[in-house]
């Protein structure tokens, strides 16, 4: 991401602003509780270091994919909102 205002807003909203909303959301807290339970079970498996690292890399790749998806959907939604406001004549194109 660059240093333009759109990237700055996206970065803040996705990485910081959403945390307050998520922590207040019951569904999100439920999912986090499930993750905690799965981590406990995972640690009890007795995996070798190589197995642990393979699973960790897989989970990290999925997490990175989800983060990218979240950023891109936020940007797309923001762009769609601007397009709608332009079409309604509420804002002018630059």
In short:
This protein is an all-alpha fold and 94 residues long. It contains three helices and no strands.
Features:
single chain, mainly alpha, elongated
Output the structural class: mainly alpha
The biggest sheet amounts to:
none
Measured on Cα atoms, how large is the radius of gyration? 19 Å
Percent of residues in beta strands? under 5%
Q: Report the uncertain regions.
A: none
Query: How would you state the average pLDDT, rounded?
Result: 88
What order do the SSEs take from the amino end to the carboxyl end, as H and E?
A: HHH
Number of H/I helices:
3
Amino- and carboxy-terminal Cα gap: 21 Å
3D shape: elongated
The helix fraction, in percent, is over 70%
Q: How many distinct beta strands?
A: 0
Task: Provide an overview of this structure.
This protein has 94 residues and is an all-alpha fold. The protein is 81% helix and 0% strand. Helix 1 packs across helix 3. The radius of gyration is 19 Å and the shape is elongated. The mean pLDDT is 88.
Summarize the SSE layout with pairings:
Blueprint: H1 5-23, H2 26-43, H3 49-87
Helix pairs in contact: 1-3
């Amino acid at each position: 991401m660059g240093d333009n205002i759109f990237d700055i807003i996206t970065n803040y909203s996705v990485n910081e602003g959403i945390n307050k909303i998520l922590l207040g959301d019951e569904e999100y807290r439920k999912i986090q509780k499930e993750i905690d339970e799965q981590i406990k079970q995972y640690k009890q498996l007795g995996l070798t270091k190589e197995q642990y690292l393979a699973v960790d890399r897989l989970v990290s790749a999925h997490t990175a994919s989800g983060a990218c998806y979240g950023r891109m959907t936020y940007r797309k939604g923001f762009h769609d909102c601007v397009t709608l406001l332009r079409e309604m004549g509420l804002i002018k194109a630059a």
